[in-house]
Amino acid sequence: MKYVAIVAVVVILIVAGVWYFSRQRKGPESAGPSQAQATAPLIAPVHVEQWQELNPQGYVNDFANVLNTTTVQGLTRLSAEVDQKAKVQIAVVTIKTLEGDNVEDFANHLFNKWGVGYKGTDRGVMVLLATDDHKYRTEVGYGLERILSNDKVGGFGLDMVPLLRRGDYDGAIDQIVGQIAQVIAQDSHISLDSLANFHPVTHATTLGVTTDRRNQIEAAKRQGDNYYDNGEYDKAINAYQVGLKLAPTNAPLLQALRRAQTAKAAEVKFNQ
Fold it and tell me: Would you give the DSSP letter of residue 42?
C-alpha cells in the first residue's frame, strides 16, 4: 500500500507539472479574449470589387478612394448639368482592381447593370479607372457613338496617361470628363457653366501625336470612310494616306487603307 500511495503521488505531480508548463507556453493572452478582441469582428471586411457587387452612389463612384472632395464635387456638378441640359448621363467609377477580369468586359457589364443613360436613348458614358491594375476604359452608349467614337475617346484616354503615370488621378479624371462634356455640349448646342474654367491640357501621347494632330487624323479617316461607303476607292485611299502621313503607325488607318486597296483591286479586276 505504501508503494501504491507513492506512485499515486508521483502521477499527480507529473499531471500538475504538464498542465502548468502548457499554460506558461500559451501565455497570459490565451486564457481568453481581451476586451478589444471580444468586440472585434471575427472576419475582417473584404474589399469586393466584382462588378456584380458594385452599386451606384451617384455620378461619381470613387470606390478606390483616390479622388479628393473638390474633384468629386466638381465632377458631380458638371455631370448633373450635362444630365439636365443634354439628357446625357456621365458616370465616373474608380476601383482598386478588376479582380482578374478584362477591363472591357468589366466596364460593359457594369455599364449595363447600372443602366447608364435614359431608357430608349442610351445616351450614357462611363469612365472606369482601375488604379492598381493600371487600366482604364470609357464605355459609350449606342446613342452617343456618333459623336464619341472609339478613336475619339481612345485619344482622350491617351491624353490623361501622363497624369495617371504621375499618380494625379484627380487631374486625369477631371480632364477626360471635361473633354467628353465638351463634345456633348457642342453636339447639343448648349453651354455648360461648369466648364467655364475648363481648359483641357494638350499632352504629347506615347505615339507623339498631339490633340490637334489627332483631330486631323480623325478627320482624314472620316473623309476616307465616306468615300469608301460611296464606292470612291481612289479618293478613300488618298484620304487615308493623308492621315497616315501624320500617324504612320495608326492601326485603324492602316486597316482602312488595306480595305480600300483590296476593294479597288477587286473593282479593277471585275472591270477587266
Answer: S
